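2024-03-11 09:14:02 DEBUG pipeline.ingest accepted 1 chain
2024-03-11 09:14:02 DEBUG pipeline.ingest length=104
2024-03-11 09:14:03 DEBUG pipeline.predict start
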Amino acid sequence: MREVNDNNFNEVVLKSAKSVVLDFWAPWCGPCHTVAPILEKLAETYKEQIEFVKCNVDDNPESANAFSIRSIPCVLCIKDGKVLNMTTGAVPASVFEEKIKILL
């Protein structure tokens, strides 16, 4: 998964030619570490159709604030620069898979 930051966020996420799954996370967040391998596996499965990226909320407050992120992990499904759905917390892989189908 590609890391995004406040400097490249608009280009990588909002102007992406592909749909994007965006994971807002932090190194100290236990549930974030639970979700990471699930998203890594999905990123491999859908690499041709969807761009998977992650954004550290501690290092990139502007990006987190732009989406009013208040709890993490927070995973957004974005198409054409618009958020189609959001998942907060550590949920099973099946939930993420169901959510990202909207991007295909």
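2024-03-11 09:14:41 DEBUG pipeline.report The helical segments are 9-14, 30-45, 61-66, 93-100.
2024-03-11 09:14:41 DEBUG pipeline.predict end
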